[in-house]
Specification:
The protein is mainly β and 147 residues long. The protein is built from two helices and eight strands.
Length: 147
C-alpha cells in the first residue's frame, strides 16, 4: 500500500481549476479578526494577466474589505479521501467608471435575487495550489489464489 501524499500544483493547473468553478471563499481581516465568506467569482483573462471578478452588495463586508485578500476554492472527494485546493492571494479593488470595458466582460451571476451593484476585481499577487493523492490500497484478493 502506498501512503497518501501532497503534490504542489503549477500555476497553469491552478488557473484551469479556477476557470472551472464559480464559487469560492474570500478571506480578509475585518475589525481585527479574520473573516471568510462565500462569493461568486469569474476568472477573466486580460492583456496584462488574469483577474478574478466579483459583484457584491453595497455596504456589505466584501464591499468594505481591505485591499489585501485571499480567495480559495477546492474540490473534495470524501469517499476516496482525496482532493485539491487553490489559493489566490492578491489585491482587491473597486472598479471605477473608467473600467466600463472590464465590466462588459463580467460573467458573475449572483445567486441572491437582489442585484448587487458593487463591481470588484482581485488582482492576483500569488496563485498556489496542492492536491492530496489518496493512498493506494492493494486489492485483498489476488488472481493467483483462484488458479
Amino acid at each position: 500500500m502506498q501512503e497518501a501524499w501532497l503534490e504542489e500544483l503549477d500555476t497553469e493547473e491552478c488557473i484551469v481549476l479556477l476557470k472551472g468553478e464559480v464559487v469560492g471563499r474570500i478571506a480578509f481581516v475585518h475589525e481585527g479578526l479574520p473573516v471568510v465568506l462565500p462569493v461568486n467569482y469569474h476568472l477573466l483573462e486580460t492583456p496584462t494577466g488574469i483577474v478574478l471578478t466579483l459583484r457584491t452588495r453595497p455596504g456589505g463586508p466584501i464591499d468594505r474589505a481591505p485591499r489585501a485578500v485571499a480567495l480559495e476554492i477546492d474540490g473534495i472527494d470524501h469517499s476516496r479521501q482525496r482532493g485539491w485546493s487553490v489559493l489566490v492571494r492578491g489585491s482587491l479593488r473597486h472598479l471605477a467608471a473608467r473600467d466600463n470595458e472590464l465590466q462588459e466582460h463580467f460573467r458573475v451571476v449572483p445567486w441572491l435575487p437582489a442585484e448587487p451593484d458593487v463591481w470588484l476585481v482581485i488582482e492576483p499577487v500569488e496563485i498556489s495550489g496542492r492536491r492530496l493523492q489518496a493512498a493506494t490500497v492493494e486489492w485483498a484478493f489476488r488472481a493467483g489464489g483462484y488458479l
